[in-house]
Structures are given as C-alpha cells and as structure tokens.
Design goal:
The complex is a heterodimer of chains A (about 130) and B (about 300). With about 130 residues, chain A is mainly α. Chain A has helices spanning about 15-25, 40-45, 50-65, 85-105, 110-130; strands spanning about 65-70, 75. Chain B has a seven-stranded mixed β-sheet with strand order 5-6-7-3-8-9-14, with helices on both faces. In chain B, strands 11-12-10-13 form a four-stranded antiparallel β-sheet. Classes of the chains: A mainly alpha (about 130), B alpha/beta (about 300).
Chain lengths: ~130, ~300
C-alpha cells in the first residue's frame, strides 16, 4: 500500500500529483500487480482532499490500464511499469553522470545546471508538441 | 452528487445546486452583491473566495434563505431558498464562527438537532462525537475552538443535507484544527455524496478541498469555474516588455505588470501559446485568485469570466 502526499508549492494539480506518485511507485517497483490502492475515503480523510480529485486520478490510472476498480472492494494495480525502459536506465544514468561532470568542469554551479536542463527540457518537449 | 466510489464511471449531467440571475443585495445605500449570475453544478465542493467585505456572506445568506434579494433571482436545488420546511431540510448552513449554544451540552445539541430536523441521522452524529472524543455531558461553551467547529459541522452533517453551506468555517482555527475540520468534511463528502459551498478569505484552505471556485471581488463575481479547467486555461507569461494590446486575440489579460524591459502577464486562453518570446509557467490556485484580485482594472469594470469545458 502506498501513502500519498501533496506538494502545495509544485504548481502541479493535486490529481496529477496522485497519478504521478502511482506511476513513480510502479516504476520503482514499490507497487506490484495485485496491490490495492488506498480507498478514496482513506485518501480524502488523510489529505483533506476533494473526493472528486482522487476519483479523477484513479480514473486516469484506469484509463492508462495501470489499475482496475473492483466495485465494492477497491482499486487494484493491474500492470507494473518496471518494463523494457528499465534496462536503458543504467546507460542513460552513465551518460547523465558524464554530462554533469562536463558541466561542472565548465564552471556551472548546481543552479545553472538545473536551469540549463529545465530550459532545454522544456524547449525540446515544446518542439515535440509543435 | 459525487459519483459512487466503487461504481461504474458515468458522465451523466448533474443537477444545478445554485442558479443566480442578476442577483443583487443592498444594505442601505451600499451594494453588498451586484449583478451576480451563476450556475453551480451539483457534486462539487465549491470554494467561494474573496477579500473580507467582498460579499461572500451575503451570497451565502441569500442561498441559505436567510436574506431576501434586493434584485434578481436565486434558486437552490431547484427551489426558492426559503421556500418552506421541505426545502429548508435539504440545505445545511454552518454560519460564520461555527456558532453553538454555550450553555448547552454536546448531548443537548444532538437532541436539539434531532428535534428540529426531519432527516436527522442520529447514528452519524453519535459516531462523529465519539470519534472526535467529545464528552456528551460537556458544555459547548467550554469546548476548544476546534471542537466547537467540529460540533457545528456534526450538526450540519447529521441533518443529511443535499447542499451544505459553510461560511468561513475555519477562519478562526489554528492550522491543526483547520486541517482536522477539512479532513472530516471531505470524508463526509466522500461517504454521503452531497454538494458543498464554503467560503474563505484564504485560498490555501480551499486549494485541496475545492474542485470548483468562485472569486468574488468588490461585490462582483470575477471568476467561476472548475478548478482543473481554471488552472489549465490560465498561464503566466514572462518576457521582453510588450503592450497588452499586442497579445493575440484569444489571450485575455487578467493581470499585467511591467518593468522598463520586462512584462509579466497572467492570461486566460483556450489556445496553446506558441510565441517563443515568452517563458510560460503554471499558476497555483493562489496565484490565480490573486491575479483576479489585483487585475488590470480597465475603466469600465472587469468582465465576468466563466470557463467552461
């Protein structure tokens, strides 16, 4: 069972935060097929969150085929995300380490590295959209 | 109604809990609420937000049937707000500062609630009082602020209303009591499926709990819509200085600020933003509300914006 949290300053809507936390837990292997997600009432009572927000998040996860609702019982994980992409993580992490080392060698501090990454990330994802 | 928690997902149209047409209320010569036109769909927790004195309490009292309108028209759950006992039984109202009778015990309050409300849910009331750890023999006047608020909420919930109206329910509470109150309210909404309208002058209270927002400033509704739609259609643009008139037609300026080189706009648009000159960022609900409160203040008053999907 996972426990949700909310980051009020992230600018990410609460429903999306819940979706991302489930996806994240699936990717990291913290949630397995057959695991039950907390009930809507439990999430709502713990986080003082609107029930529709939780329902929307669970519907989105259902739509993605990651979970299935069994009426009267709960919502269960139907698929994991620790799939093919996991194999590529090691190589990508190595590349990233090398890139970070090069950036530091060039005199960038943490903040500059983050800014450079975020602007490049945003502009390349915008190019993908356009 | 909130959709069933484990039931099949359907998108059937929901009933309107509150419908206002040109609604207005005057106190003496001062308009507390002007030209209020709203359609609030059912099944939402609606946040009514605005500065002190903006007209929030007036709107809620009009909805609760405690105040007649000076002009215009209001229906709540399809009926007149004060249209007889049957209509009153469908609406719960927790007034500002969550009032209770100081001299009466917790048990007295529950007895009173049972006597006054035809749909009283005694089991719910008893179970909540027990879970809150309130002593039934305790006099309400000697409860803490948080406990008093929880007692008032219990009375409102045990009435089993279709619509529960709460006027600044957590304003006077400390952060922990505030959280506990909202947890209890949200849990009840999940369990009993009713609509809620609650007001606050603090957006942070509403950020998690509300999925529908009404912004009231200077006795006028500035914005009304589903929170997700509002967040998806509002953006902050930062870039080289530019005149607001030179923004594309589909981008409505909510607020603008300029330095000699830079402009920052909060805009509302349904369209994607392609202009590479702008750094586009997301807004939190608080940013959004503040943008409407500040506003560009054009000469003839701001338009009423409604975002629909």
């Amino acid at each position: 069972m996972i426990e949700f949290y909310l980051d009020g300053r992230s600018g990410v809507s609460p429903y999306l935060q819940l979706v991302q936390q489930v996806r994240h837990a699936l990717r990291l292997g913290l949630l397995h097929e057959g695991d039950r997600l907390p009930t809507v009432k439990d999430v709502v009572a713990r986080l003082a969150l609107n029930p529709n927000t939780v329902l929307k998040a669970y519907r989105e996860l259902e739509h993605e085929g990651l979970v299935a609702a069994r009426p009267g019982i709960g919502t269960f994980v139907t698929r994991t995300l620790t799939d093919a992409s996991l194999a590529a993580h090691g190589r990508l992490r190595e590349d990233l380490r090398r890139w970070l080392a090069a950036a530091r060698l060039a005199g960038l501090d943490d903040e500059s590295i983050e800014a450079l990454f975020m602007t490049t990330f945003r502009s390349s994802s915008q190019e993908d959209v356009a | 109604m909130i959709r069933g928690l484990a039931g099949p997902v359907s998108e059937e149209p929901m009933t309107t809990v509150l419908r206002a047409r040109g609604l207005a209320r005057k106190y003496g010569r001062r308009w507390a609420l002007r030209d209020c036109t709203l359609d609030i769909p059912g099944g939402h927790v609606v946040g009514l937000v605005g500065p002190n004195g903006a007209g929030k309490t007036t709107l809620l009292k009009l909805a609760g049937g405690q105040l007649p309108p000076t002009a215009g028209d209001i229906t709540v759950l399809g009926g007149r707000p004060a249209g007889g006992a049957a209509q009153l039984a469908r609406i719960g109202f927790v007034a500002q500062d969550t009032p209770v009778y100081a001299g009466l015990s917790v048990a007295d309050h529950l007895r009173l609630g049972a006597g006054l409300n035809p749909r009283w849910d005694a089991a719910l009331a008893r179970e909540r009082v027990e879970r809150l750890g309130l002593d039934p023999a305790h006099r309400a006047g000697r409860l803490s602020g948080g406990q008093r608020a929880q007692l008032a909420l219990t009375l409102g919930l045990a009435k089993r209303p279709e619509l529960l109206i709460l006027d600044e329910p957590v304003a006077a509470l400390d952060p922990l009591a505030r959280r506990e109150f909202l947890q209890g309210l949200m849990e009840a909404v999940a369990e009993h499926e009713f609509s809620v309208v609650l007001s606050s002058h603090l957006v942070s209270d509403l950020e998690r709990t509300c999925d529908y927002l009404i912004v009231l400033v200077d006795s006028r509704v500035q914005l009304a819509g589903q929170v997700d739609d509002l967040l998806a259609t509002h953006h902050r643009l930062t870039g080289p200085r530019r005149d607001p008139d030179r923004l594309p037609a589909g981008q409505h300026v909510v607020s603008a600020s300029h330095t000699d080189r830079q402009s920052t706009f909060v805009i509302r648009t349904e369209d994607p933003i392609h202009d590479p000159a702008w750094t586009v960022s997301r807004l939190t609900l608080e940013d959004l509300v503040l943008a409407y409160m500040e506003g560009p203040a054009p000469a003839k008053g701001r338009p009423v914006l409604e975002v629909r999907r």
